[in-house]
Amino acid sequence: MSSKKSTMNARRIKVGIISMAAMAIILWLILMSKEIMTGTLSANFFITVIPLIGILALLAAFVKRRETSLKNGMPLTDELSGAIDNKAGRYTVTVTMWFLLASALYQMFIEEFALPNILLRHFIWLVFFLMMLVFVGFKWYLSRKGI
Amino acid sequence: MKTRIKELRARYGMTQEDLARKVGVRRETILFIEKGKYNPSLRLAHDIAKSLKSRIDDVFVFETSSAKRVNRRH
Questions:
Q1: Residue B9, CA distances (Å) to A114, B22, B51, B64 in order
Q2: Mean pLDDT of A84-107
């Protein structure tokens, strides 16, 4: 791949990541709008801030790592990184499916066992955060262990 | 599968980074291949062998037990 093409790809990835970060913030604001406008901030509101900060930090670290690779003249991705992403992605989908199944069972027994109810907007953030955490975790593990 | 990449790199005074740049992959990929943690694609194996001025079967050595299993099948 020529360096010009590599630079253009890096720029596209950077724009994509900035767009993702902006979308994450906007989505969070929309989901929390009711609580923000009424000023009644529940404990769950602050819990959702933590994943948002985590996601933004991960995206920033991703951009920094990519820029370092580009400066060193290394390709942004290659067959190994692609294979690691694929495997980590498959494991993430599996773990998320099991989590959703467990959540469905939890919902079924909320009334029976007087369990605390989780609001949908908080649950969405929880699933999003779980997927990010699991994907990053598996990617880190496979980068050490190999595939 | 074992590789002689490290030995051949030393012969030509190449670092992992030099070899990675030559074949168009990241340094970590060369490291993983050397450690036997990743089996490269045929294309990458060919490019590595070419960069090290060797044949593929001189660079990548399959274990004797695997070869025996293959011979038994045929």
A1: 66, 12, 9, 24
A2: 95
